[in-house]
Write a structure and sequence with these properties.
The chain is of the alpha+beta class. The chain has 10 helices and 37 strands. Strand 34 and strand 35 form a beta hairpin.
Length: 657
């Protein structure tokens, strides 16, 4: 008999017991008590806007008469609305897979709302006509529905079932939420023929027991009996998961159970080995249609031939990118499987993988070696190089190698990127490069380029109007240029961006020039003139030299933290402020000179303030080389951020003489 392999990857540190739940609930659907409806607050978390009174997940594999497997998931949720902000807990949205090869089915949706009316519990059942099923994307549909008569005090109860022919793809089972959970239970029933790797995530202990049962499915002339391995889970009084800044994927820290298929073995019939190591995962991808399309011929040979031979390798790559982007528009999606190349060219639009395949053909035509680098994006969680998975990747980018051995990385999707400048979502330590020999290797994508901002501000003070006028220049480079271009492109037009700039800096912008905002480039810049009002008593003028605050005291408000701080990339900020002192005034106070270091992030901040003649100069430099802040260093990082905030509050004080 097959047994499940348990791989506990994170130390579980808090014990919960079945008799500890704060609110005793009858777990049968429809058996909501008057006490549950009457309750007005949750004593263990009075700030909670809602409470998961009960959640049950029942996962089981069926075998039909034809010997086909299917995965069924039954869900039962019971939610208490405690505050106005919790009312939207009655709105539900579910995506399900719907391709020509595999079709999931959502059925048995039942929704009831319970309210107190004149001292009695009144039930409101959601009519089926309020269930909406619509197309979401090429391979997905979306089901949406909302509980009726939801208000503060309501209890919402929901149940449904999802049947999935992709039996090997078990979604993670989450026991912790962003609201507190009174009781969460799950059972997973899998035939003995399957072997799964299993791991528990999070910081709360999930009670676990295992049972063995039996089942049968019909065969010619009778039935075949087999054993069922049953995993039972239970978590009681789970606190709400607190979402903190600088976490790319909060769900990876939620208490949950993850299953990853390892093998299927039916004696005398079937044996399937599902990637027990990364070599097997590599082989699976290398033999797929993905690689066939990746190795496809160049679709733009005439345009590629027109690229001048005397250009540098970087210029040739940039020229090839332009050819692809002029022919095909990125549809703003990331995917792992590209469409056939000719189909993408004809459609004139495609995902990043579609564009990357087209670009790969162009670059090979130019004499470069081009390999895919497979990526699990940061928002999908951390890819563990010691934990092989069947389908770990979200998309791929390109590694382009010149004849001299120099390798460059790029993604042809977002126009904000450049060579070695990727979407921060892609800045991971474990990208999987599949080279031309057919073997995979890990590559670190977190430090491909220097990133940062150089900002210079000049100011001249007019005491009569208590105002300052001057010039500002901002020069973004590396990933910061990607971030700036993305931010700029989020506005409807330049006027909207200028309005936002004025609001952020309490200044009026007179003239502005934005360079390279639409170019395929490694940098971008903003130049503008400004005027702003100063605090003044007539005798004394106060000037904050920091036109921009690069860090906030409010970033790390929580006194404690349970999971790491995940910065996207190393960066440098260089800021200069030049003030012309008006006639009749002298410097009464300057910001203090500062030199602070934080070993936990390999970060340094330096401030130098000086006055000479009628000029005040402030120089500020911040450099951070590490991207991961460990939990044990949180107090130091939080204090460091508070001190950074104090720097931005410092003042230049001018006094009338």
């Amino acid at each position: 008999m097959k047994h499940f392999l348990i791989s506990v990857l994170i130390l579980l540190c808090a014990a919960f017991h079945a008799d500890a739940q704060s609110i005793k609930v009858n777990t049968r659907f429809g058996k909501v008590s008057k006490e549950e409806v009457e309750m007005t607050t949750y004593d263990k978390d009075t700030s909670a806007n809602a409470l998961m009174l009960y959640e049950h997940t029942d996962l089981f594999m069926n075998i039909n008469a034809a010997g086909k497997f299917a995965l069924s998931k039954k869900k039962h949720l019971r939610i208490k609305v405690l505050k106005e902000e919790g009312i939207d807990r009655g709105d539900f949205e579910m995506l399900y897979y719907n391709s020509s090869a595999y079709k999931e089915v959502i059925s048995g949706i039942d929704v009831i709302t319970y309210n107190m009316v004149d001292g009695k519990v009144v039930e409101t059942k959601m009519p089926k006509k309020y269930i909406f099923n619509e197309e979401y994307s090429e391979n997905y549909r979306k089901v949406t529905f909302s509980a009726q008569e939801v208000k503060v005090g309501s209890v919402i109860e929901v149940k449904y079932e999802i049947t999935n022919p992709r039996y090997w793809m078990i979604d993670d089972i989450y026991f912790q939420k962003t609201i507190p959970v009174n009781l969460a239970e799950a059972s997973v029933r899998i035939p003995e023929y399957f072997t799964f790797n299993k791991k528990m995530n999070g910081y709360l202990q999930i009670d676990y027991t295992k049972d063995i049962s039996s089942s049968a499915f019909p065969v010619a002339g009778g039935s075949l009996t087999y054993s069922l391995n049953i995993d039972n889970y239970r978590l009681v009084d789970a606190p709400a998961f607190r979402v903190e800044p600088y976490v790319y994927n909060s769900s990876q820290y939620l208490s949950a159970v993850h299953y990853d298929i390892r093998s299927l073995s039916i004696p005398g019939s079937v044996y399937e080995d599902y990637s027990v190591n990364w070599t097997a995962v590599d082989k699976n991808y290398l033999e797929s249609d993905l690689m066939t399309r990746f190795r496809g011929n160049c679709q733009f040979k005439d345009q590629v031939k027109a690229i001048p031979a005397e250009l540098t390798d970087e210029e040739k790559i940039a020229a090839a990118v332009k050819i692809v982007k002029d022919a095909v528009e990125w549809d703003e999606s990331y995917s792992i499987m590209p469409e056939p190349l000719a189909q993408t060219v004809k459609a004139r639009t495609g995902s990043n993988s579609d564009l990357n395949c087209l670009l790969a053909g162009c670059l090979r035509e130019l004499g470069f070696t081009v390999d895919p680098v497979f990526i699990k994006m940061r928002s999908s969680g951390i890819l563990m190089d010691y934990q092989p998975e069947m389908n770990p990747y979200d998309t791929f980018i390109l590694c382009v190698t010149s004849s001299d051995g120099t390798s460059r990385y790029l993604d042809c999707g977002p126009s904000e990127g450049y060579i070695n400048i990727l979407d921060p979502e892609m800045l991971i330590k474990n990208g999987r490069l599949m080279n031309s020999t057919g073997s995979g290797q890990w590559v670190d994508l977190t430090k491909l380029c220097r990133s940062g901002l150089v900002m210079n501000v000049s100011a001249a003070v007019d005491p009569a109007t208590a105002s300052a006028t001057g010039n500002v220049s901002l020069n973004y480079f590396g990933v910061d240029s990607f971030e700036f271009k993305s931010y700029y492109n989020s506005f409807e037009d330049e006027e909207e961006y200028i309005t936002d700039l004025e609001n952020d800096h309490s200044a009026e912008i007179q003239e502005i020039e934005i360079k390279k905002k639409d170019e395929y480039s490694k940098d971008a810049s903003v130049l503008f003139t400004y005027s702003k009002t100063l605090d003044s008593t007539g005798e004394i003028i106060y000037i904050n030299p920091f036109f921009e605050k690069f860090h906030s005291k409010d970033t790390f408000q929580s006194p404690t933290r349970d999971y790491p701080i995940d910065f996207p990339y190393p960066y440098t900020v260089k800021y200069g402020f030049n003030l012309q002192i008006p006639e009749g005034y002298a410097v009464d106070q300057l910001p203090q000179n500062v030199l602070m270091k934080l070993e936990a992030l390999d970060a340094t901040v330096r401030v130098i303030a000086k006055a000479a003649g009628n000029i005040v100069q402030i120089s500020y430099t911040y450099t951070q080389n590490k991207t991961l802040g460990e939990v044990q260093h949180y107090d130091d990082i939080r204090t460091f951020w508070q001190n950074l905030g104090d720097i931005y509050d410092s003042m230049i004080v001018l006094k009338k003489i």
